# Entry
Amino acid sequence: YMKNNSILKNPVFACAAAVFCTLLWGTAFPFIKLGYSAFAISDGDIGTKILFAGIRFLLAGIMVYIFLCISQKRLAVLPKSDFSRVLALGFVQTSMQYIFTYIGIGLTSGTNTSIITSCASFITVLCAPLFFKNDRLSVLKILGCLLGFSGVIAINGFGGLSLDTLFGDILIFMSTLCAAGGNIISKKLAKGRNPVELTAFQLVFGGLLLTIVGLILGGGLDFGNANGILILLWLSVVSAVAFTIWTALLKYHPASKITIFNLLVPIFGTVLSGFMLCENIFRIETLISLILISLGIAAVNINLKAKNKNGKF
# Structure
């Protein structure tokens, strides 16, 4: 974690860093599919999927913790006063979000999952004013949410949601609430705290709980698979880097201005899946989606220069 954090406060760098995070998270889409294939995880094996996620986040937390100790030149210890707060963040943002996701995703379609998950950005934008006085709601923010949501629907071929998979949709929506809640909790906890330390401990707590749940549900992985191990390590690096940068950005900028970039994740996921999994990405829906989501992000951040006196968006 940089002692000189002025670069984190720079709005141009913040935009670039937020896009970088969503690009990293976008790589998770194809790599998770490749990981399932490498470990021969069946669609209905919820326990192993949750175990896979748990080990991924646990390793990510350990990576961030090692970096934290090296940068501080001492063993990092979480203050007792922060223990319950960080545990709550790990429980909401990592454990519950992915438990709901991995169970729900097997009961609904990929289209529904993508559309409902995108709501996390909108929920954060709409709820942030209730928790942060400097994060006011505006017409442009509402317009940005509508444009972004239209973009997410567009990438799925304007298919919309169906009632055929209602229970799965509800579970995915619960994961979306956890994601939005995690953003708000992270924003609150980051004030006056080292975001690297916060990320390390919440990932370790959340990943450990997911691992335990996965084992209880009968999950198991063959760690003799070299390809599977490499994929798992890459996913851990993705989580370690992206969550650390994201938490730091939330510390210095309004939650609504940062979380709206999450709408890029399905775009990057779709494009990267196309290249890596030989899926068809050259569709008009992808282009329309990218345009709408870009306009949505611009609308939410349209006042960037007007309110840049304090170094924020």
In short: The CA atoms of residues 304 and 313 lie 5 Å apart. The chain has 13 helices and no strands. Residues 304-311 have pLDDT under 50 and may be disordered. The two ends are 21 Å apart (CA to CA).
